[in-house]
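User: Hi! I have a protein structure encoded as tokens and I'd like to know what sequence might fold into it. I'm fairly new to this, so please keep things simple.
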């Protein structure tokens, strides 16, 4: 039986990216750069959608909801699976649980253009029942209101 070489490279997990648009942005109350393991900065980006204020934090509905989508400003980071679990907890999602109607946020994926290239990103989208029309931010930049 052939013996496996110790120098055989282990396959690295695929790189995962996240688009953050609210308290997880740099300077926000849940600043992703202060979390562990530390994410890798990719760049600033905008994603079409609808941004809502929910008091101390925002929620975003992704594009295609209505013809009123605007660019929502955010940041893109490369993250590890460990950090992804931390983000899930921050967003109130239970590890291993199926999505439920009672969840405030849902995990979605969206293509985001960063520095001239398309990057597939994890986005935490607010459930429609929390997105009240009177709470919509028309400028698309959460930190503009709290910064």
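Assistant: Happy to help. Inverse folding works backwards from shape to sequence: for each of the 147 positions I chose a residue that suits the local structure. Here it is:
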């Amino acid at each position: 039986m052939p013996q496996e070489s110790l120098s055989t490279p282990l396959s690295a997990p695929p790189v995962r990216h996240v688009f953050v648009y609210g308290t997880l942005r740099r300077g926000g109350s849940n600043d992703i750069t202060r979390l562990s393991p530390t994410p890798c900065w990719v760049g600033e980006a905008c994603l079409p959608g609808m941004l809502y204020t929910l008091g101390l934090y925002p929620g975003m509905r992704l594009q295609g909801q209505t013809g009123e989508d605007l660019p929502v400003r955010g940041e893109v980071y490369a993250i590890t699976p460990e950090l992804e679990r931390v983000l899930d907890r921050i967003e109130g999602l239970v590890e291993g649980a199926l999505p439920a109607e009672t969840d405030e946020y849902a995990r979605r994926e969206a293509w985001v253009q960063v520095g001239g290239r398309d990057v597939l990103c994890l986005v935490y989208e607010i459930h429609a029942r929390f997105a009240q029309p009177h709470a919509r931010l028309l400028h698309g930049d959460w930190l503009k209101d709290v910064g």
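A useful reference point when you look it over: The radius of gyration is 17 Å. Feel free to ask if any position seems puzzling.
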